[in-house]
């Protein structure tokens, strides 16, 4: 069973990061995986730490509940994600990968009283991107009977890969944010100093672009970047205060259009009913950094593990 500790990184996370760093030092093995080697897959039970769940709620501003937080499976799956990202032969650099988009489907309630979570992760290549290579990380959470409770799809950009733009690249990833709907409510949205390190201690995501100005500059950023999943969780917490529906049976589409730096003060816009939201990066000309929308899942049905 994979340990999910409340410490900065469990043994499994430490080993995974060690593999990740060792692969970075072996450029001759970069990109050696063939198309037939994909998708990469791993699955395992992840033990639940109540203290870690509470710390996650606190840092994301979430209210107490008997169920797991809406995006918590993504955090719990970090050891599995790192196991896949540390696979020798992936193209480009896995350290410094950029999270550009996220989809989530909430099929059923996720009880917080279970001793462990049955999670699987799948990594598959996407299309070429002008700045590198896109990859999809699929995450599934099952109950004890094998029914699908939660599923997420993360879109990652591996920079440092020479793109084959002849391979029908996506028109625009991430897509431009739509205009702010009328009657939307706006409020302050703060990214406090040190939030990258604080969230890393809880999530296990120690990507250097989030930790300090010095480490972020190694990957081309002048300031440390807020974790996209922290900003998304905080935005959903604010949306929840205004939403007139449960997340169960809903699907989230979210895009990270521009980095949010810490510390900074930004603005959050939420549409009436909470079906759409946007976080603007502060400045003389505010720029959409994160936007998302919630829609009903069209096919709300039981899914079994294969």
TrEMBL record:
Pfam family, one: MaoC_dehydratas
Annotated MaoC-like domain residues: 198-246
InterPro entries for the chain: Fatty_acid_synthase (IPR003965), HotDog_dom_sf (IPR029069), MaoC-like_dom (IPR002539)
This protein's name: Acyl dehydratase
UniProt source species: Natronospira proteinivora
């Amino acid at each position: 069973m994979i340990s999910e500790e409340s410490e900065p990184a469990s043994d499994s996370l430490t080993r995974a990061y060690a593999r990740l760093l060792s692969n970075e030092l072996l450029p001759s093995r970069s990109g050696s995986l063939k198309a037939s080697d994909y998708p990469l897959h791993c699955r395992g039970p992840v033990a639940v730490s109540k203290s870690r769940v509470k710390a996650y709620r606190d840092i994301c501003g979430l209210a107490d509940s008997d169920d797991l937080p809406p995006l918590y499976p993504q955090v719990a799956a970090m050891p599995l994600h790192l196991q896949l990202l540390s696979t020798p032969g992936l193209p480009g650099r896995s350290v410094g990968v950029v999270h550009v988009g996220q989809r989530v489907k909430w099929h059923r309630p996720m009880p917080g009283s279970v001793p462990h979570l049955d999670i699987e992760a799948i990594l598959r290549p996407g299309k070429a991107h002008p700045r590198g290579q896109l990859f999809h990380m699929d995450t599934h959470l099952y109950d004890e009977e094998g029914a699908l409770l939660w599923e997420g799809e993360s879109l990652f950009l591996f920079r440092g890969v020479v793109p084959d733009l002849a391979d029908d690249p996506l028109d625009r990833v991430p897509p431009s944010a739509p205009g702010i709907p009328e009657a939307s409510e706006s409020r302050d949205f703060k990214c406090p100093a040190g939030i990258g390190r604080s969230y890393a201690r809880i999530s296990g995501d120690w990507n250097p672009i989030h930790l300090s100005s010095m480490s972020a500059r190694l990957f081309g950023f002048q300031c440390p970047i807020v974790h996209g999943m922290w900003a998304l969780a905080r935005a959903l917490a604010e949306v929840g205060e205004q939403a007139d529906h449960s997340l169960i049976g809903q699907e989230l589409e979210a895009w990270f259009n521009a980095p949010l730096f810490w510390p900074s003060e930004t603005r959050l816009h939420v549409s009436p009913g909470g079906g759409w939201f946007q976080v603007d990066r502060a400045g003389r000309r505010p720029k959409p950094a994160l936007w998302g929308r919630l829609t009903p899942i069209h096919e709300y049905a039981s899914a079994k593990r294969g």
